[in-house]
Amino acid sequence: MSADLIPLDRRRPRTPWRGGALMGAGWATFAGAVGDNREHAHHALQLVVGETTDVAVWIRGRGEVQAPAVLLDADVVHRVHPGPAYLLYLDRESHAGRLLSPTCVAGARGLTSAERHAVLDAWPRPSRLELGPILAALGQGLPASPPVAAPSDDRVQRVLDSLVTRTTWEGTLTSLAAEAAISPSRFRHRVRELIGMPLLPYLRWLRLRQALTVAATGESLTRAAQDAGFADAAHLTRTMQRHFGVAPSDVIQALRQGG
């Protein structure tokens, strides 16, 4: 059963973000001190977890709420209260996102202390980049679906493997399907089988990860954005704001500090 969400007095301190971040296919994490953030919405679910104390989140239509952890549905206007926390972002179109979104009532779900501890025990680390344990920790019959095994000669899998290391992003569904020598519709279907999310959101995550990772090494944000297929730094910033509600500079700093 979800924890009750307790209204709090609304506050707006101005503090910087400090912590480490990790990014995977369709998900990203942040662990550390959440800094100032304006009221915003993004097309990703967000799990906000307190390490030892409750977290506070302002949610449009519900006011500020407090719980050991709060799961926010995609496109919900909110603001996370600054302070120590673990954040998990999940693409709404991913397998995990589609499983968890229906558990959010009126846009959010409060977690119990027991669920918080289970989630933190399962938190992704550089040596364990998987979401299955977190889905299991969130319980209520939400085990992660086992990945679809890919034959060693799977042409779509080979194309997907190559995307991870590409430095140019001119491929389209048609061109990528041509690389695999199958129809675009079959390519799209097979991609969803293999990675649990549609092709275009998956490509966006890869491009964001490339741009932010390269910028974290010291490359200019403009060059990193353009190399990853964004028109310019402003385009990258708009994409980050839409999907995560934070500026690239916050994530870049966290990536430099590691997870």
TrEMBL record:
Domain of life (superkingdom): Bacteria
Keyword check for Signal: no
Record Pfam families: HTH_18
Residue ranges of every copy of the HTH araC/xylS-type domain listed in the record: 154-254
Keywords: DNA-binding, Transcription, Transcription regulation
Example of a GO MF term: sequence-specific DNA binding
InterPro entries for the chain: AraC_XylS_family_regulators, HTH_AraC, HTH_AraC-typ_CS
Protein name, per record: HTH araC/xylS-type domain-containing protein
Annotated source species: Arenimonas malthae CC-JY-1
